[in-house]
Amino acid sequence: MNDKLKHPIGKFEWIDQPKFKQLEKAIQTIAKFPQKLRNILDGLNPSDLKKQYRPEGWSIAQVVHHLADSHMHCYLRMKHAVLENEPNIKDYNQENWATLSDAINIEVEYSLDLIEALHKRWSIFLKGLNEQEFKRCYFHPERNKQYPIGTTTLLYAWHCNHHLAHIENSLKNSY
């Protein structure tokens, strides 16, 4: 499989202790993401939403629904990490979630609305964190790894851009 199709902007580079400027930029990416997503989807028809970004990959519609699922999980994980002492998170199998009826539906407006509201809340939450709170972690038991909120903020800014690139690729080269 072509790694450029799977990771069109490259793989995420883990940073244990991000600098303030990196966090600020990541939060801006998260805040601006819903509008960028709406802009790229504007005017697409149902057959466009069925296009895949790589062979055996998700359709554009599934990517949009995945973004809603994944970003909800992350937002809640971060809130737990701020309020609890290194909570264990509940993982989910994104491949299985992408096969459920709400994720295979070609209509994406309800997920776009959810992403828009979620990112508004998420951005306000992140802007309100202090330096110590960005260092707080949740524990991912399946990966046996701590996830600091600061690092996860960078990860999800990358995740936004990663999937925007998938959608752009789908529109240029459908598989």
Structural class: mainly alpha
Largest sheet: 2 strands, antiparallel
The CATH superfamily is dinb family like domain
Low-confidence stretches: none
CATH topology: Four Helix Bundle (Hemerythrin (Met), subunit A)
Characterize the overall form.
Answer: globular
* DSSP strand tally: 2
Quickly count the helices: 9
The string of secondary-structure elements, in order, is HHHHHHHHEEH
CATH first level: which class? Mainly Alpha
Write down the Rg. Answer: 16 Å
Side by side, the strands of the main sheet go 1-2
Q: What's the end-to-end separation, in Å?
A: 13 Å
Residue share in helix: 55-70%
Give the name of the CATH architecture: Up-down Bundle
How many domains would you count in the coordinates?
1
Q: What percentage of amino acids are in beta strands? A: under 5%
Q: Taking all residues together, what is the mean pLDDT? A: 95
Give structural notes.
This protein has 175 residues and is mainly alpha-helical. It has a single domain, classed as Four Helix Bundle (Hemerythrin (Met), subunit A) (Up-down Bundle), CATH 1.20.120.450. 63% of the residues lie in helices and 5% in strands. It has 9 helices and 2 strands; from the N terminus they run ααααααααββα. The chain has helices spanning 3-6, 20-41, 46-49, 60-83, 94-97, 101-104, 109-127, 131-135, 149-172, and strands spanning 137-140, 145-148. The protein has a two-stranded antiparallel sheet. A hairpin with a 4-residue loop joins β1 and β2. α2 runs parallel beside α9 (149-172), α4 (60-83) runs parallel beside α7 (109-127) and α4 runs antiparallel to α9 (149-172). The radius of gyration is 16 Å and the shape is globular. The two termini are 13 Å apart.
